[in-house]
Specification:
This protein is α/β, with parallel strands linked by helices. It contains 16 helices and nine strands. The protein has a five-stranded mixed β-sheet with strand order 3-2-1-4-5, with helices on both faces. It has a four-stranded parallel β-sheet with strand order 7-6-8-9, sandwiched between helices.
Length: 408
Amino acid sequence: MTYAVIDVETTGLRPSWHDRVVEIAIVQVDAAGAIESEWCTLVNPQRDLGPQHIHGISAAEARQAPPFKELAGSVAERLAGRVLVAHNWAFDSMFLAAEFERIGADVPVDADNGLCTMVLAGQFLPQSGRALASCCRAAGVTLTNAHSALHDARAAAELLGHYLSIAGAPPPWAHRLRVAPDWPPFPPATIGPARRRAEGRFEPHFLSRLVEELPRTHKPNVDAYLDVLDRALLDRHISVVEAEALVSVADSLGLDRAELVELHEQYLQALATVAVLDNGSVSAGVRDDLTSVATLLGLDGGSVDGVVRTAQHAITMLGGEPARPTRRLYLRHGDIVVFTGDTGEPREMWEARATAAGLRVGQNVTLQTRLLVAADPDTMSGKAAKAAQYGIPIVHPKAFLRMLPTDL
């Protein structure tokens, strides 16, 4: 089983609103997780470029790049016969499928037939947030220039390699994730990739730095939506088109209005908490930005005072100890863990390890359960269904070992 890790930079959030791919990178990875090749090109979207201050692509560069129809053969050649991977596969696959659909090509690309490094982080990097930068920090992977397709795809490929090194062979997804069916034929590629003239670096706004620290919810459809929301808020503005795109994404992921309101409230609270952790207090400028975010999310701007007070109180109760997911000890003495599935070694050995580390072993998943350990974290067991219902993380056994308390 070999892989093709993809990243796309786009003009916006939703291809159904005429947003297009402006850069695509494909990193091929072998079965052991080693990078085999890298390929990246700009794409002429034949429309305006959207948030240029985020992706850093100039109109002059895009104008000289080929349109997707001239690159489709090169893209298909690099994807065929491989498992497709991306960080938020639901987003990248949506754009990739739309580009092929525009040229009349029926390709095996959809949200259900790829691997998502953001989702897998919940199983192998449970201490990280959902953002690519946060996952990379937790895994010790270098991300040199976020929002450059090649750098993001390379980082996601290294994340995949990290997961494979933990999971061993065969990986837990091998039995359920097959290589996509044959791709349709394309004319031989006659044009080479168009690269950026210079990899520009942009000083990120404080909000983009906060977004990198936001925790996952451990619910794949919710995290997929919040990742798109992260992208929308990077320029501190949600246009009418972006708002409609978010509604469309939420609908495609099965989220209703009540869930979205709750998610937006939790999102604002998480931003405020990270802001307080970063600075010890919230300056007038940061408060104004949080108020803008609240308004963009359809929340009462006055709610900012409440979330800031809650954040300050919570941190004070913790003695001022930073509580970011990437820095905290995930499991503590007395936490309840539950095991499910065939974990290779006898179940008794895993339970003994947990007990020796000061954890309590549960036989059933309840609201008090801290963690469910599963040989295949995508298991459809009753315990896994209950864990998903309660928002309890499900992790691979080898990831569980790294989370054990060490202060024995």
